[in-house]
Description:
By secondary structure, this protein is an alpha/beta fold. The protein has helices at 2-17, 23-38, 59-70, 79-102, 113-129, 137-152, 158-162, 195-207, 256-262, 267-278, 293-301, 344-351, 368-376, 392-404, 412-422, 487-491; strands spanning 166-171, 177-181, 184-187, 219-223, 229-233, 243-247, 283-287, 310-314, 326-330, 358-361, 384-388, 425-431, 437-449, 452-462, 476-479. Helix 4 packs across helix 6 (137-152) and helix 12 (344-351) runs parallel beside helix 13 (368-376).
Amino acid sequence: MSGLADRLAAARRRRDDDPAGNDDVAAPVRDDLEGLIIGAPLTTTVTAPVPPPPPAITLAGKRRAAVAVDEQPTTPRRALPQQTDRLELIKASVHTELLRELGPTLYAANLDQNELDQKVRAALHDVLASQEKPLSAVDRTRVTQEISDDILGYGPIEPYLRDPEVSEVMVNGHDNIWLERSGRLVAADASFADEAHLRRTIDKIVSRIGRRVDESSPMVDARLPDGSRVNAVVPPLAIDGSALTIRKFAADPLTVEDLIRFGSLSDRTAAFLDACVRGRLNIIVSGSTGAGKTTTLNVLSSFIPHDERIVTIEDAAELQLKQEHVVRLESRPANIEGKGEVAIRDLVKNSLRMRPDRIIVGEVRDSSALDMLQAMNTGHDGSICTLHSNGPRDTLSRLETMVLMAGMDLPIRAIREQVASAVDLIVHQTRFKDGTRRITHLTEVERMEGDVITLQDVFAFDHTAGFDEKGNILGRLRGTGLRPKFLEKMQYANVHVDPMLFAMDGR
């Protein structure tokens, strides 16, 4: 027993002599203690528990500990998050108090928007004045604007909807917002509070036009009061949270002079398109998503004489026609019971009974293509529509495919004969990598040769100039030198075109 006690006391002294616990001293101490416990006879009892050895601390460990201490955030660094959290708390309390004070007034159907705005701002001023914690002028302005945007507008995306330089707002989840500015995508410095906040904003948009979005109907097309196009997709279809896309509606629609200034058109091609519309040609505007088809359709519609009756058919009304005699029709989705849907095709059929001089379809994307062709072939010359495609030839292929979707089991040759007889001109538009949108083809649809429809480019985009050092495209739309054969058809409408308009050397 004395030998065991002596060895235990010696081990404790060696440990006490090295409080830093260096590896070269701590290891023997640890070995001695383990040997005393493991190698001792089973009859031996140690009255005092042996404390565990302190962890070995190396020089590298000391440095890491020192760095960790130095990197502890100081009070000034946490001041900004604390200030932000305080503003968020104040904003939440003011928002709640404001809703309690105004109550159902916010949703009164007979309340004018300006009157509602005044009531909200007056109540907001009173609520902020009653806050116990004082706010600086800058913070007061910020809280006032954000709460006004949330109640009267569309929350954090409201400033971008007011920004004339932003053409599209894309929300990929409550904390991921992107913008299209000058044709390029940039991240927005804004976010919704959470998914519920984003869903409330979507519901506010779609409910104003009598539509809904929920799990049973998770996709919706809608429009803002100014005409901006809205698409929303919510879970379970949207995996990472609700997605909201808003293509802004220009308060002042672009004119043909604007397109010429932007380089989308030239003076010659603008004069040619003006003559084509007045000459009652059937025109298809084609292009990819975001290529500017609706803008071009608006410009073409501006060439229609003011003494003609125009019927427009759209999924979401966004055309801005300046003529006086315009009838605007809009399709309707099915209700919650799956009934009551009115499709584009139904509206095209109905428009034939409305004595139209012109039928303008915002976008043909399904079996309504068959009815549109029938309208063009039954005396409704001068009709205009848009569809998605990659080029003039693909435009005809898509048109054939959509006619087949009508389920009429028509032979391909019969469909192509209908297309060749109905369509006169294809205006194809492209969005380039530099963000510019240009008309790249003005193509005549001639006639059938065998089983193929013959196409002829009247104007085509010249890509040979390439790009400048900033990546901007330098090409332009040039004449091919070929005169279209539909000039004779235009003469029946008393519209004549100068043959020199098609000269190749005209720049």
